[in-house]
Structures are given as structure tokens and as C-alpha cells.
Amino acid sequence: MPEERNESQNVAPEAEAASVPSESDENASIDLWGGYDITLAEVPEISVAEPTRAIWIIGLRDSGKTTLIASIYEQFQLGPFGGMEFAGSRTLLGLERLCHQARPESDLLEPDTERTSASAGIRFMHIRVRDREHRSGILSLLLSDVSGELFRRIRDSAEEAEVFRGIRAPSHVAALVDGAKIIDPVTRHAAFNDAVTVLERFLEQNLIPTHTPIDVLITKDDLIRSSAQAVALGEFLEQKREYLNTVFTGGRRVVLHRVAARPKSGGYRAAEGIVDRFRAWTDAKTLDSTEVWAEPRLQRGAFGERLPWRLL
Predict the structure, then answer these.
(1) Alpha-carbon gap, residue 8 to 93, rounded angstroms
(2) Which residue from 58, 89, 192, 278 could staple onto 82, CB 3.0 to 4.6 Å apart?
(3) Integer Cα distance of 290 and 244 in angstroms
């Protein structure tokens, strides 16, 4: 009777050794997304996975940069926003942290927003969206969240803007002006001029492409409109709107808008004026060919695990 063969006898010693997990395999680490922010080193991995737009949000201290980001995320918790549905985020923990001080759980008397630390450097919050009709695919937005201290240094020296060189060029730029300072005649002109100067510093260093639209956002517009000087302030801002057209030439699109991320005065909706800006930032008609990336072999899933492209 033939001897029964053991299949394991046909395994070559080299293959048998390879099938045994090595100590290095057992100790191998898996890189996971931290969930709080996207660093400069992580931006390329986001960008190659799907069409991505970087929105540079710039402005000095208290202009409302972080509050702007938080208000967009808060609106998505209520449903679609600006014709888009929320489709995930690699920075959910960071977005939740931005919103915490505006919630009852914070025990604060008035809604507030955690300020970005000057030591944080350049970082981004990440939001994935898709249009409500699902006519297009996923679009990733990288919203810069940078301390106002860095922009103060850039205002004083164009060379300070060099830290932005080499990172993903902006699809849109939002330059914020603190509306509370616009109300005060002592700080009004300086607040507006500071924002213009920071923009000029970026342009001097050729960091903003000519085709990139630039929005100058006057924040806290609810305070301006409810002010006793509302009419005069409206005329002042109209003058500044025309002024921007004389300062920024050469085909650049620089437009002034009035917004209120978290209105404190009655009669104003949350994210007042921001919804129109968000539509512009996500408009599929303006999708640049450089935003369509080649299919990578391997990417990461929602929790940081590595997945084939087809599973994303």
C-alpha cells in the first residue's frame, strides 16, 4: 500500500522558514493618523489619494481663522452645507477640539474657540466632501490653521513667508480682517491694511499663483451691522472693496466679503456669508487638472489602516 504523503514534506526549507513570522515582523509598527491635524509631511499622502484643494486661511490674531474652520464643521453636523455632504475627515479629533469651547459642555458663559498655538507651526484641518446629488467624487479640503503670530511676522518681513514655500499651493486664499476692529475708528485702518500687507508679502515671494482667487473676509459682520455706525461702516467697506481692485492688478481676483461665523447679535444665521465662500471653494467647475492625481498602489483607510485604492 503506497505510503501516505505529508504535504508539508514538499515544502522547501527556505519557504518554511519564510512562513514563520520573524521577530522584526512582530515588532513592526503601523503608522496611524493622529486625528488632530495634518502636518506638512502628511499633506502629500492626502493629495495623492483623491482630488485635493488647499485653502490658505490667513490673518492676524483674533481675526477669526480658527472660528471660520469650526463653523464649517459645525454646519455639517446639522446636515449638508453649501450643496455638499460631509464625507469624513482625518482630523475629527482636532475639529471636535476646535468646537468644544462653543458647546455647553465647556461650561463657558459665551461661545469661544481655542486659539492656535504659535508653536504649532503650519498645520491643516481636513474635511472630505461630495455634492448632494453624488454627481462627482470625493473632494478633500485642507484648511490651514496657523497662529496669527506667524502672520504678524510675515507682515513685518516678507522673508518670514518662506515657511510656506514647498507646501501645496493654495486653490483659494481667505484673508481675514477682524470686524470688531473695523468698528473702532482707532484700529479700523490698521486692521484692514495689515491684511492687505500680509497678502502683498505672499505675492512678493510668489507663493500665491496668479489664477488663485483671493477672498478678503470681514469677520464678525453681525457686530458691524448692529453698530450705531452701520451705515458709515458699510460705506467704508465699499471704499475698501474698490481699493482692492487698484492694489491687486494683473488679472488677480481679490474680492471683499462680509461674514459672521458665530453671530452674537440676533437676526443672523450661523456661518452667515460663509456658505457662499464654501461653495466657491468646492465648485466642481473650477476643478483644476492638477487636482486629479494618479492612482496610488496603497492608501490609508478612515482609521489610518493601509488599504488598496478600491476600498477607499
Answers:
(1) 49
(2) 278
(3) 28
Distance CA 197, CA 151 (A): 10
Q: Model pTM?
A: 0.78
Predicted local confidence at residue 290, as pLDDT: 44
Return the SS3 of 183.
Answer: helix
Q: Where are the alpha helices (DSSP H) in the chain?
A: 13-19, 23-26, 43-49, 65-76, 92-100, 148-156, 179-183, 188-204, 221-225, 230-247, 274-282
Q: How far apart are CA 270 and CA 263, in angstroms?
A: 6
Rounded CA separation 174/164 (Å) = 15
Return phi, psi of residue 110, to 5°: -130, 145
**Positions of E strands within 21-123:** 52-58, 84-86
- The CATH topology of domain 40-285 is Rossmann fold (3.40.50)
Contact criterion met (CB below 8 Å) for 91 and 10: no
pLDDT at 114: 57
Report the candidate in 97, 111, 108 with the shortest Cα–Cα distance to residue 34.
97
